[in-house]
Automatic annotation (TrEMBL):
The keyword Nucleotide-binding does not apply. The keyword Transcription applies. This is LacI family transcriptional regulator. It comes from Brevibacterium luteolum. SUPFAM superfamilies: lambda repressor-like DNA-binding domains, Periplasmic binding protein-like I.
Amino acid sequence: MTSSSRPTLVTIAEHLGVHYSTVSRALSPDPAVRRTVSDATVERVERAASELGYVSNRIGASLRTGRSHALGVLVPRTSEWVVGTVYEGIDATASELGYATFVANTFDDEGTRQARIRRLSQWGVDAILYSDSRLDAEDLDPVGGVPCWPIIRRGREDHSFRVDDAAGGRLVAGHLIDSGYRDAAVICGPKDMSTFRDRATGFVDEYVRLGGRVGADRIIDSDLTIESGRREAGRLFDTDRPSAIFALHDPLALGVYVAAAERGLRIGTDVGVVGYNDVEMSAQLPVPMTSVNWKCRDLGVTIARNAIARLEGRPETAKPPSPVLVPRASTMPDAPAT
């Protein structure tokens, strides 16, 4: 082999004195195929491949097998902490199972999403996982034979690649009632995203059932920025201040903190505040914020395991994580009932 030639499976086979097919099976990304070769042979082949500088050609392999062992993942924005953390779990788990991942932003724009889907299908991914479903939208049909599966959010149809957001809302309702907050408002986020609708519905239904009050005019749609939380909380504070505000996204809850500070209100005493997602800063605020942790990375692990099981025709046994309420000083246990 010259210094400029690229080592191949044949190169490794000749180096070891074994058949080409043995090397191919030993280096297969499919665990079931690798198991047809002894562990000792796999180790020997992998060591030789490393010594010879072999790099597998997945494109060539996909032409032979019809499988790329790659997943496409569409997210609204990789800069968002939640979807970024979910993707981290997907990518790490897919890698452990012999799959690569490719991520692309859609910016919650339908035209951008369709362009990204076409591009990913052209590159031959085995499936596309998309996290930008809208409540009024049908699930996507396969594109060029590539299945498209929703994750995190849902459209008109439910699916198993998400957490129970309504359960998270119910946890908040019980906590606020137990802590003495019986007059609440909800800053919801966009009304066409299932994550926020389900959290709000779960909260309101349970809060009212437990004896709390939350009027229809206090269930407020918004975007997801700190400024939006500040603006909507300010309106509530300046009209008929509730005893607690449940903001369905931690940046919205940070906006509530800002609005309270501007009016000299004490978080946890004058008004209780609960967020959702439990980002790292929630625990670091001057008044640490109660929030719901739904274990974003663990959901990514579940999504990857079940998506790959579905592709390989195996049962989908991984269970999505359950949301957990993390109580902190923003909802003081001794807050007076109102």
